[in-house]
Amino acid sequence: MKAHVPSNVTKILGILGNPLSHTLSPAIHNQFYQDLNLDCIYLVFDHKNPTKQDLLTLHSYGLRGLSVTIPYKEWAYEIADERDSYSKLMKASNTLVFEEGKIFSYNTDGIGAVSAIRRDHPQFLESQGEHSILICGSGGSARGISFAIIEEWAEARKSGKGFQAKQIYILSRNEDTSNQLKHDLNSRLNESAELISISNLSSIQNKIQLIIHTTPLGMMGKQQISYLPSDFILPSMTVFDIVYNPKETILIQESKSKGASIIYGIEMLLYQAIRQHELFTNTSPTDEVIDKVRNNLYSKLNS
């Protein structure tokens, strides 16, 4: 990649989190800027205990936007002056945009997950078919993804094209957050969500077409175990693990061995970054650029 030479008008963007030693976000965004000939640079802000004033000071020196990751998504939501609808639903934000001294927050996780599903498995988002989805976890990512899916289903129901019943089952060890998620999803689309325990998983095994794992289990530096018993996974299922590093988590390895279809976490990372790029620059990457970035990401994870 040719080195970008910044100037006094270069738009400064970046990612805020801690730790960030394994982040792939700079590779995505800087590739977008280079291939689209944008005068932008994307930096890493690996920082502990940031304050709102820290960000406003950086904004005064040219910072225009930030991707936000663990552990600051809830904090980013709290400090924002204006919040998008997804942030309000999740009480968390993964994107901050700075304009004229104000902070605007967005959450692109749900959009990224839905886009990843739609790429190869659009049937899970359409009106036809009695699709059942198992969501593993009930934290911020689970909320964002499940709400984005429910919105797709709600729009499909409005279309009047013979909408068939669909179900999200929530498997979580946190009783409070899982009950809240069930309540909120059913408030948006009646009788769309149910809780399921690990001991009762077998009762829905033949109903589940899509599994979405949203917890940190399997992430680089975290416990390398699967959230699900391996005998639950069937060849008829599609398994989506939002963990992207490593690419082949234990859950993905077990699912592939059972003949299940796979959606890699890198797809969600890419698509949520595309939406962030649009918010940061008011431009959209071409399909050719997206494919180039995708190939580069898989090469990095495979090396």
Written overview of the protein:
This protein has a six-stranded mixed sheet with strand order 2-1-3-5-6-4, sandwiched between helices. Strands 9-8-7-10-11-12 form a six-stranded parallel sheet, with helices on both faces. The protein folds into two domains: 11-107 and 267-302, Rossmann fold (3-Layer(aba) Sandwich); 111-263, Rossmann fold. The chain has helices spanning 25-35, 52-60, 73-79, 85-90, 109-120, 140-158, 175-188, 250-257, 265-281, 287-302, and strands at 11-17, 40-46, 63-68, 82-83, 95-99, 102-106, 132-136, 167-171, 193-195, 208-213, 238-241, 261-263. Helix 7 (175-188) links the parallel strand 8 (167-171) and strand 9. Helices cover 39% and strands 19% of the residues.
Overview features:
10 helices; Rossmann fold; 303 residues; 6-stranded parallel beta sheet; alpha/beta
Overall 3D shape: globular
Distance between the termini: 18 Å
Which architecture of the largest domain would the CATH scheme give at its second level? 3-Layer(aba) Sandwich
Number of strands: 12
Order of neighbouring strands in the sheet with most strands: 2-1-3-5-6-4
CATH superfamily of the largest domain: NAD(P)-binding Rossmann-like Domain
As an assembly, this protein is: single chain
